[in-house]
Amino acid sequence: MNRSSLVDHTRTLAVGSLLGLIVLGLAWELWLAPLRPGGSWLALKVLPLTLPLAGLLRHRMYTYRWVSLMVWIYFTEGAVRATSDSGLSAVLAAVEVLLCLLLFVACALHVRIRLKSTAAQTSPSPP
């Protein structure tokens, strides 16, 4: 598999897992297992996740880098709620943890592959 297809795959995985986190957060806090019946203001937690979407779609390296750091906030929330909540909420929290891990791995691989590709293009060829 060449580098450009790996970059495309990591981009697809990053965007997909980010969209999954957005949908999961909204569904979780509004319908599936809200903290209060009828929905919760905690659904607003997905707003920061919408910010990097355009940068990921436009291949902005900086966005991939800071998303790989931001995702740990959501990972922590998922880990805490997976161990402290019960029932459906705990299952949804475990799914959140999984999506966070996928997003982190996709972003980290994306950055690594692109940096290697850039280094290979700029290094002088042997005589």
Automatic annotation (TrEMBL):
Pfam families xrefs: DUF2069 (PF09842)
Record bears the keyword Transmembrane helix: yes
InterPro entries per the UniProt record, alphabetical: DUF2069_membrane (IPR018643)
UniProt keyword list: Membrane, Transmembrane, Transmembrane helix
Keyword Acetylation (UniProt): no
TM region(s), chain numbering: 12-33, 39-57, 64-82, 88-111
Top-rank taxon, per record: Bacteria
Record-given protein name: DUF2069 domain-containing protein
